[in-house]
UniProtKB/TrEMBL annotation:
Domain ABC transporter: 8-240, 257-507
GO cellular component assignments: plasma membrane
Phylogenetic classification of the source organism: Bacteria, Bacillati, Actinomycetota, Actinomycetes, Pseudonocardiales
Protein's cellular compartments: Cell membrane
One of the Pfam families matching this protein, by short name: ABC_tran
Organism: Amycolatopsis acidicola
Ubl conjugation as UniProt keyword: no
Gene3D superfamilies xrefs: P-loop containing nucleotide triphosphate hydrolases
Main location: membrane
GO molecular function, one term: ATP binding
Protein known as: ABC transporter ATP-binding protein
Length: 509
């Protein structure tokens, strides 16, 4: 075998933020043609390191060497010139433009917009397995194809080293396999990948090498095929993990939520994005909704939360005495006050005020309730105290409760939101991707908190793209396809692959 050729060498990278050292003397060597995973707990410093490598942030200390040459990356343009591309978790694409426009816009200087550009786009589409016509609008594509467009866009700009930031979070198992096939194929052609993921089984399936970061610094580089997922997780947290709890059903026969014949039309049209949705949810029950992104799950959750207005149907919350209260016409705050906790799918848009301190975020959505208000008055001391409790109980890694929410890593923001929503003693929890972006330790903690609350009678509507989570937590799973609940799966027996097929319509009723 030939000697490994380092294409990326990060040496002694240190990056400080007020009160936090995000990266401290981090070393990372990535060799040509490998898939190199970077793993670590929430807040370990992965995103910061990738932002430094992509020129979005500058290190306080340390050197960056690309293809043997030490360079300074002042901005992403510098990184792109050096052959580095980044596929972000939230796609940077325009829905109302075609595939071709998305790829070519801003890169006209490379191949123009004529025949040469088209040929290059066709070639890259082939290499990445993108089957869509270059003339279709992006909004008509599914998530997996959009991700391919994002990859094509990065390659079109000349990337040879591609950073994939949690690329599988939104994919079903079959799509993950297809993505990994693409990655392997491109590896053969000399591309190098840096892969950020919390899913350790996937890391072991695709990565040639994994570097583990703990509390801002590198703890080691290992061959993932030679250690178990559990050992890898233990390397990340620096101690042994608790064993997962066994499951037990706590479902009662008391309805908490009833949804009848719910219909929602697309804005400004008669086309239904939700149609004929009926279900009930009982105290102590977790009802999981499976579906490929874009099949109406977001709309269902937002309609139940009063953020969208149903065109037909009825939503009722039932109290412990069996009295039903209609929610259909109420606003979001009133629904929350009626006892609904809400973990939104996009924590930065609907869950947090990023510029505000953590304690002010504790008040968000709870401004009329104890312990953060008394009658008409906010209780700032109460909010501070309860925020400190959440930080402690949910292991939110932060220098303090005065820092703005924006200063927390993504996973730690998520823990704060989950902690807040479970603190209001809800009777119903609407949880959209509750552990998206959190590490395995924090995921186990959040699952445990949900299980404990369910044991005490909480009803949970769980929407998740993480099929292990859906199967592990739910008592019942309904599959959503094109705005309808089409089939049911038994979490005790269904496999992630079977569920994935039902979600894509391959086996739907
Ligand atoms: N802009 C910022 N201002 C202040 N602190 C920051 C900023 N960005 C990151 N940090 C802090 O740096 C540390 C590392 O965060 P980073 O986002 O790199 O972690 P991560 O490993 O990517 O975590 P996650 O898995 O949760 O996304 C965290 O303590 C975070 O709070």
């Amino acid at each position: 075998m030939s000697e490994p050729q380092p294409v990326v060498e990060l040496r002694g990278i240190t990056k400080r933020f007020p009160g936090v050292v995000a990266n401290s003397d981090v070393n990372l060597t990535v060799n040509a043609g490998e898939v190199h995973a970077v793993c670590g707990e929430n807040g370990a410093g992965k995103s910061t390191l990738m932002k430094i490598l992509y020129g979005m942030q500058q290190p306080d200390e340390g050197t960056i060497t690309i293809n043997g040459e030490e360079i300074r990356l002042r901005n992403p343009q510098d990184a792109i010139r050096a052959g580095i591309g980044m596929v972000h978790q939230h796609f940077m694409l325009a829905d109302n433009l075609t595939v071709r426009e998305n790829v070519l816009l801003g890169a006209e200087s490379l191949n123009g917009i004529g025949r040469k550009a088209k040929a290059r786009l066709a070639e890259l589409s082939r290499q990445t397995g993108l089957n869509a016509s270059p003339d279709v609008l992006l909004e008509s594509l599914g998530v997996a194809d959009r991700q391919r467009v994002e990859i094509v866009k990065v390659l079109y700009r000349g990337a040879k080293i591609v950073i994939l930031d949690e690329p599988t979070a939104v994919l079903v198992p079959q799509e993950v396999d297809a993505l990994f096939d693409t990655v392997r194929g491109m590896q053969q052609q000399g591309f190098t990948f840096i892969f950020i993921s919390h899913k350790l089984d996937e890391v072991r399936a695709i990565a040639d090498t994994v570097t583990v970061i703990r509390r801002g610094t590198t703890v080691g580089t290992v061959d993932p095929k030679k250690i178990s997922s559990r050992e890898l997780a233990e390397m990340m947290v620096g101690s042994e993990l608790p064993s997962p709890e066994t499951r037990e059903s706590t479902v009662t026969d008391r309805d908490v939520l009833r949804v009848q014949d719910l219909r929602l039309n697309a804005e400004g049209s008669d086309r239904a994005v939700l149609d004929d949705i009926s279900f009930s949810l009982r105290a102590g029950e977790v009802l999981g909704i499976a579906g490929v992104e874009g099949n109406g799950q977001t709309e269902l959750v937002e309609t139940i939360m009063g953020m969208r207005k149903a065109h037909a149907g009825r939503i009722e919350l039932v109290d412990a005495e069996g009295n039903a209260r209609e929610l259909t016409k109420l606003g979001t705050l009133a629904r929350r006050e009626a006892g609904i906790g809400y973990i939104p799918e996009d924590r930065t848009r609907h869950g947090l005020l990023l510029t505000q301190p953590l304690w002010a975020n504790r008040i968000l959505g709870y401004q009329t309730r104890e312990p953060v208000s008394h009658g008409q008055l906010l209780d700032i001391a109460g909010a501070r105290k309860d925020t400190a409790r959440i930080v402690e109980e949910y292991d939110v890694r932060t220098p303090g409760i005065e820092v703005p929410a924006a200063a927390l890593s993504g996973g730690n923001q998520q823990k704060l939101v989950v902690g807040r929503e479970l603190s209001g003693n809800p009777v119903l929890l609407i949880a959209s991707h509750p552990t998206r972006g959190v590490d395995v330790g924090a995921q186990a903690l959040i699952w445990e908190q949900i299980r404990v609350a369910r044991h005490e009678g909480l009803a949970v509507l769980l929407v998740s793209a993480d099929l292990d989570e859906l199967i592990g937590l739910s008592d019942t799973i309904r599959v959503m396809l094109r705005g309808r609940l089409v089939s049911e799966a038994d979490p005790a027996t269904v496999s992630p692959q079977e569920l994935g097929s039902a979600m894509t319509g391959a086996e739907a009723a």
